[in-house]
């Protein structure tokens, strides 16, 4: 009798685990988008996030970011930050624009920014990913101060401009989604449009090593506390009369130059920039496994000019 009861319990536990793995926890469709018939999207309500920027929410977020998020990030990866002196050249709100290859990118930016700037920074997040369920939307809004943007049509909501006008810095990932292999994808026009439309500078940021630390598909960083480099660049401002289409390549080139600098040296990278010979950060024209292999190479050790992350 006892043996049968133990066997029944084990079988039940196995069945429960199997059902849990296949359970639809969110509202995301299980059919691939490529197999779905085209349907004109219905107007959906936008998840409100203004509450996440109230004094009470800011106080809660300060505890979460400086306490839990900072501690967990430091325990799992070894962030190395440089170029923070570039942020001293700002005099007002700015767009923080970075390449995007991992869910680690947002925590890395927020935990390496100076405290005063971090407290006044909001993050643009994909509405169809982070705001598809109320609990995910609430969690990301309170912890990361996110607000939804619509990426399927390449459109930004009105919120970024409102935030910039209110003195908030805004983090934007112009690629629209995480890189599938760690290399830079084409930058969209949203960040350049915001900079031109609202007359704010852009802070380019190169993030290297986050794909190797936590590639797409993983829910937690890989073991071994891998090093990740975050390099801030000098502010870029659109020239008088410059259009977003003209300004966008400059943002992409600035981020590429920072990644090149991280791979080589500041002097070599600046010489290539001056000569117009900065290497593309879109990766080698090779098979997928080779591109992933190249992008997961360990980053160079911290040099004397890189400020230790504390």
Automatic annotation (TrEMBL):
GO MF annotation: an example: 1-acylglycerol-3-phosphate O-acyltransferase activity
Phospholipid/glycerol acyltransferase domain span: 94-210
Keyword field: Acyltransferase, Transferase
Keyword Acyltransferase: yes
InterPro entries xref list: Plipid/glycerol_acylTrfase
Gene Ontology terms: biological process: phosphatidic acid biosynthetic process
Chain positions covered by the region annotation Disordered: 273-310
Residue spans crossing the bilayer: none
Name of this protein: 1-acyl-sn-glycerol-3-phosphate acyltransferase
């Amino acid at each position: 009798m006892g043996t049968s009861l133990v066997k029944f319990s084990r079988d039940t536990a196995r069945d429960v685990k199997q059902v849990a793995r296949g359970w639809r926890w969110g509202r995301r469709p299980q059919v691939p988008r490529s197999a779905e018939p085209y349907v004109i999207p219905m107007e959906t309500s936008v998840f409100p996030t203004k509450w996440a920027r109230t004094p009470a929410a800011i106080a809660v977020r300060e505890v979460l970011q400086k306490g839990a998020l900072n501690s967990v990030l430091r325990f799992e990866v070894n962030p190395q930050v440089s170029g923070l002196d570039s942020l001293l050249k700002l005099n007002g709100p700015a767009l923080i624009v970075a390449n995007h290859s991992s869910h680690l990118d947002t925590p890395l930016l927020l935990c390496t920014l100076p405290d005063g700037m971090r407290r006044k920074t909001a993050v643009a997040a994909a509405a169809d990913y982070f705001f598809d369920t109320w609990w995910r939307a609430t969690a990301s809004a309170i912890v990361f101060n996110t607000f939804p943007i619509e990426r399927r049509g390449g459109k930004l909501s009105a919120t970024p401009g409102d935030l910039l006008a209110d003195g908030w810095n805004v983090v934007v990932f112009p690629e629209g989604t995480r890189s599938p292999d760690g290399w830079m994808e084409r930058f969209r026009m949203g960040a350049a449009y915001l900079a031109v439309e609202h007359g704010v500078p852009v802070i380019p940021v190169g993030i290297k090593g986050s794909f190797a630390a936590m590639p797409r598909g993983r829910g937690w960083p890989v073991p071994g506390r891998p090093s990740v480099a975050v390099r801030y660049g000098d502010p870029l401002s659109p020239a008088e009369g410059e259009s977003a289409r003209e300004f966008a390549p400059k943002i992409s080139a600035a981020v590429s130059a920072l990644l090149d600098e991280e791979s080589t040296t500041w002097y070599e990278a600046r010489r290539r920039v001056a000569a117009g010979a900065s290497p593309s950060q879109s990766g080698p024209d090779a098979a997928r496994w080779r591109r992933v292999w190249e992008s997961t190479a360990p980053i160079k050790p911290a040099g004397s000019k890189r400020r230790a992350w504390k």
